Amino acid sequence: MRLSLLCIFLFLLFGCQQPKKDSPKPVQVSYGHIERLPDFQSKYIKERNVDILLPPNYDENRTYPVLYMQDGQMLFDSTHTWNKQEWGVDETLSRLTKNNIIPETIVVGIWNGDKYRHSEYFPQVPFEMLPTKVQDSLITGAKRSNDQALFASPIQSDKYLKFLVEELKPYIDKKFSTKTRSDFTSIAGSSMGGLISMYAICEYPQIFGQAACISTHWIGTMNSDNNIIPSLFVQYLKTHLPDPSTHKIYFDYGTETLDALYEPFQLKVDSVMIKKGFTSDDWMTKKFEGHDHSERSWNNRLHIPFTFVLK
Fold first, then answer.
1. Domain count of the chain?
2. Mean pLDDT, 10 residues at a time, the chain of 311 residues
3. What is the CATH number of the domain that holds 215?
4. Of 22, 95, 187, 237, which is most buried with the most CB atoms under 10 A?
5. Does 22 fall in a domain?
6. What is the DSSP code (8-state) at residue 140?
């Protein structure tokens, strides 16, 4: 299915906006409570807010699994988001834990880098498989809107993962009562956040044991016509997927708006998963008819990836 250029333009124009850096009101959640790390510093990437959702009755004498999530400003409270939508992470966790489907879990919501989001979330090794001229043309020429570049800087996803692994995770493990092993450490995101979550479990399988890649943006840029980027992701996965006996990976996609582009590429990824030995015990791909590329759709189905990676 093809999208109109208007739909693609609107996503690229508005899909990455975020609220003002310091919101005057605290984030409101219906499950547990939020602790914010404002302007968390890094030697690798631009500083950013990190919101930690702690379970109700958080107890330092217990230890908890941890889920790291991209686009942290979109996860909990729609009154703070640019499009008045949210993932509903707190409500989903509340339902699943009350029904003993998943254990109580700490969620680390990492705010994106605003204009640097695409540069931070685009997997670097596959990007560097592109011919140099294509790399350069994307960095300098790809547009989010008429006056805004898609890439605000050279690709820095390797630096972003170093921030997660070398700076943020050690801080979280020191400050909070966490289960530190990879089988209790998951990562998740949607769209470009799905790509970087896939990249994280492949590059750091000793850190991340589970990944939920939702509406994974296999096309990488703004369209799928004559686009070699998806084939490079497939090539990368053939040699970088983690061991299925110790890792779990979830993919999904909808059928409307930007998600309508993903199915042919997801099917190729699914073929790689099968060839690499993944089964229904450690891998899931779901298609959601009528779901579009929005937080509202991800909210509606979030219980499925949460159950799969956190159970």
1. 1
2. 46 46 69 96 97 96 98 86 83 97 98 96 97 93 80 96 98 98 98 98 98 98 87 98 98 97 98 98 98 96 98 92
3. 3.40.50.1820
4. 187
5. no
6. H
